Amino acid sequence: MNPSELVEIALRVLSAWTDGRKPATADLNTLKEAFPWSAHLPDDDLACQVIHDLGGRAFGKSASAETGSPAMDRVA
Question: What is the pTM of this model?
């Protein structure tokens, strides 16, 4: 799955969380599979971590170069 799709899923999870709804199980499972090292985080923190790690890639920037995030090296 490409970074843009993962960021979109993370945004859906955050939207549901913000509205007081339970995020879709399929969305959460997708994020946990893509970021197994962050799967232990609460739903909202997991979504935020995905956006943080992939935001630059999804929007055409290299977030790894900007933040030095080692997680960027694990997601292709």
Answer: 0.73
